[in-house]
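Retro notes - structure team

What went well: the batch runner handled both jobs without manual restarts.
What didn't: labels got mixed up in the shared folder, which is why I'm recording both outputs here explicitly, each with its sequence directly above its tokens.

Job 1
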Amino acid sequence: MRHQQLRHVRWPEFEKSLLSDAIITITARILLNH
């Protein structure tokens, strides 16, 4: 993803992408811990 595209993305959608990335990271950590 290019940085220029991020500027045109709506904040709600941008926050959703950050939230989804956080969920994936947390899920990966939980799976690795087990």
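Job 2
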Amino acid sequence: MSSLSKHVRAMATVLHEEFLVPFRIYDAATATQLWPVEERRGDSQFLTDNVGKYASLVGSRKIQVNLLSSGKFQLRLPFIIAGGTLIAEAVMSRIAGSSDDATKEQWRLERWGQAVLDGLLQVELMRSQRSAEDDLKRQLKHAWELNLTIERLIRHIRIHRDVGASVGKILEAAPRFVGAGCLAWVPGNLDAIKVRGEMFLADDDLRDLTKALRHEPALRESGLLLCPNVSESKWGVDFPQLSSVMVMTVPSRNSFGWVIAVRARSEAAVVGFRTSDAASLAPFAALIGLINKASERYQETKDVLVGLTRSLASAVDAKDPYTYGHSERVARIAVELGRELHLADDELSDVYLAGLLHDIGKIGIRDDVLCKHGPLTPEETQHMQQHPEIGHAILKDLHQISSLLPGVLHHHERYDGAGYPAKLAGEQIPRIARILAVADSYDAMSTSRPYRQGLAPDRVDATLIAGSGQQWDPRIIEVFQRIVPRLRSIREHGLGESLRQALDGALRDTGSSRNVPANLVVPTATV
């Protein structure tokens, strides 16, 4: 039973209880009987009026009481409900008595009918107000939940080079607010499509749908396309599984894309997308746009950092050409040690970049000391030992790589506390520095210098093992022994890893606690 039928029946019940006679109810606009649905026998006493007479009755907004030739009264009550005006009509017997009963009864019926009518109108008004309040409450709840969801996404989404994971989280959260069976992000190049929702739509279908929609005038002019009924569109024949489609353009700094919401066709009636659905989708689309803009800024900033690091590395190589490639080999060796220690991806990123930059302080060492073809004097040794602190001073204002600084500053500390610059010992030495210490020593002992030949591989291995627990962390030396073949491969093949790839995850996501990317791709031991 429809809500109108329930409402009409309830109205008839109230009238019957008040007057103790059955009522029938008409639609005043069409003279259509709404209640009872089926006419009972014996109801011929009811008169049938045309639409014009009903309209006249409604226009007067008055109770109508007529004395019938049968000696009965006809009572008509007009009342307004949402969507139109109804007429309640009943016929009742006169009260037996004197000749003026008709006049008295008519007066009573009018008074009584007016009171009942006023009550019905008040009930209807209250019901309408209650319905409006319920609608408002639902809208407020929807808006509140939507706001909380957006805030939660902003707190947890991490901006880094792979925006796919972040966009996926947004698409997972949005369908329940939009009422979409499927929600998709389609970049402008139609690549790397992301899809979420209960209804599955293949990437190829989404590409075809986007190609069909992207030139629609409404989408090009306003950035929003609502297609409540796909079957009525010129392209709908190609997508028989769809009932309704909504498309929103998402611009960025240097690119754009579309958020597409679809509802599936089913046997049950499916309501098409409306502007209220677009209003719910808009904040999710805007958040995707912000992520894309941040990603583009990230890429631009990363390019600047790449150039800076390349310049610094070139400066070190220019100062000491005999150690060309040393920093990159140390970085790759340190990563292999870190992998064997089961470091997380963000820690491996730090290890690699710290390896690249660990000797950057040698820029501040005098050329006659740095390039000397022989043993250093005590004064020269003291000067050379300043390079970790010089490197730390050079890099300390680059907040994006602040997590690398402990490795740069402390990679010459010794496990027994006899190192420099702070004479830290054991676990006091940051782990990143302990890893770099082994990697740095391994490559340095293996490399020839003007005043000495590099040690043979077996002798390098033996020296490191002998220094376990004294110069180097015994756990890292244990790991070193397990992966010696991989480390020798790095020594034998030398360079080959591009600096740009190495720095691909160097920048930090400002939304994370440590400002560290989770997925830097660091180079492997093989070339």
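One thing worth noting from job 2: The CA atoms of residues 254 and 296 lie 8 Å apart.
We'll revisit the folder naming next retro.
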